[in-house]
What we know:
Keywords: DNA-binding
Bound molecules: 4'-deoxy-4'-aminopyridoxal-5'-phosphate
Number of strands: 13
Largest sheet: 8 strands, mixed
CATH architecture of the largest domain: 3-Layer(aba) Sandwich
GO molecular function: DNA binding; L-aspartate:2-oxoglutarate aminotransferase activity
Mean pLDDT: 97
Shape: globular
Protein name: DNA-binding transcriptional MocR family regulator
Structural class: alpha/beta
CATH superfamily of the largest domain: Type I PLP-dependent aspartate aminotransferase-like (Major domain)
Organism: Nonomuraea soli
CATH class of the largest domain: Alpha Beta
Oligomer: single chain
Pfam families: Asp_aminotransf
Distance between the termini: 8 Å
Order of helices and strands: HEHHEHEHEEHEHEHEEHHHEEHEEH
Amino acid sequence: MTASRDYEALVQRGLKLDLTRGKPSAQQLDLSDAMLKLPTTTKTGAGIDARNYGDLQGLKETRELFSAALQVPAGQLVVGGNSSLAVMHDTIVFALLGTMPGAERRWAEQEVTFLCPVPGYDRHFAICERYGIKMVAVPMTAEGPDMDVVERLAADDPAVKGIWCVPKYSNPSGITYSDDVVRRLAAMPTAAADFRVFWDNAYAVHHLSDQHDQLADLLALCEEYGNADRAFVFGSTSKVTLAGSGISFFGSSPANVEWFLSHTAKQSIGPDKLNQLRHVEFLRDADGIAAHMRGHAAIVAPKFELVDQILRKELGELATWTAPHGGYFITLEVPNAADVVARAKAAGIALTPAGATHPYGQDPDDRFIRIAPTFPDLEELEQAIYGLTVCVRAANA
Ligand code: PMP
C-alpha cells in the first residue's frame, strides 16, 4: 500500500512541472548570446549583399559549415528558415503536388504509405496524418528499425513510398542506427521507384560526452547502391544555437536538390542570409561547432545522469529505459503507460501523452513514455522524475 500512499502524498504537494517537449533550457540558449550582436559584416564570401533578396540555395560558407555534420556535400545542401520541421512538411507537400525525380505520378494521385519506426517522433506522424498518408508502424531494435520488416514491406507494396528516420540519438529512444541498418536502407529493393528515406538528422552533433556515436553516410551509400535519389536529409541548428531562430537544411542528390529548389523558388525570393552569416561568424567551422556542443553537454549531461540515477533507485525491475550517448530524450518502457501519464498529470507533472510515440497516437502495448529532461533545472527535474516513479509504482501496484 505504500505505492498508493506515496501517490496521495505526491498529489498533495501540488507540483507544476513540465517534461513534455524537448526544449533547450534558458542556460543553453545563453550559450549563443553572442550571436545577438552578429553578423559584423553584411557581405557574403561571394561579395554579395546579404541584406538583399537572392541566393535561394543558401550561402556557400553556411553550406560548407554544416556539410560534414550532415554528411552532405556542400553543393547538395540547401539552407532553409528556422525550422527543419517546416522543410520536412513542405517536402511532403511538394511530393504530393509535384512529380519527383523517378516518380511516374504525383503522390496526391495515389495511395501513399509511410513506414514509421516506433517509438518515433510525433510531429512526423502528424504531418502524415494531416495529408492522408497511411502509416505503418515498424518496431525499433537497438540498432534502428527492424530491417527484415522494412525490406519486406518496401519490396512488396508500391504504395510504400517512404520511411521516417531519426538516425542519430533518435527521438525518442536515443539510439543511433548501426552501419548495417543504414546500408540496408540504401541498398534494399523497393516496389516504388520513387521511394524516399526521410533522414531527419536533428541530433547529428548533440553528443552528451566524449563518446560519440558514428553514423554511416546514407547519401553516399544510396549512390553506391544505385539509388542516388533515395535519401532526403534534414537538419537544423535549433538545438545548436537558438531553437526559434536557427537555420535548417535539406540535402539530397543533385536531381532532388534541383527538384526541391524548383518548388521553393515559387515560395520565396531568397532566405534570411543575415542569419546564415550570423551562424558562420559564430560557429566558424567544424571545431567551432564541436566546442559549442561541449558547452551544451556540460549543461545537459548531468540531467540525463540524474534521470538515470532516480529511475535505477526507484524503479529497478519494474521498467526499462534508454541511456543515450546524445540527443534530447530518454524512453521509459513501463506497463500501463497511459495510466502512469494520467496519474502524473493529476499530480501536476505534464508528460508527452502516452501513445504519442506511435502513429495515430496508438501504442498497442501501452508501454512507451518519452522523457525530455533538458528544459527544467536540476531541482525541478529531480522532483518531476521522482514523481514519475511514484506514478509508475502506483499504476502497477
Ligand atoms: N526533428 C526531430 C527529430 C526533433 O526532435 C525536432 C525537435 N523536437 C525537430 C525535428 C524540430 O526541428 P526544428 O526546430 O528544426 O523544426
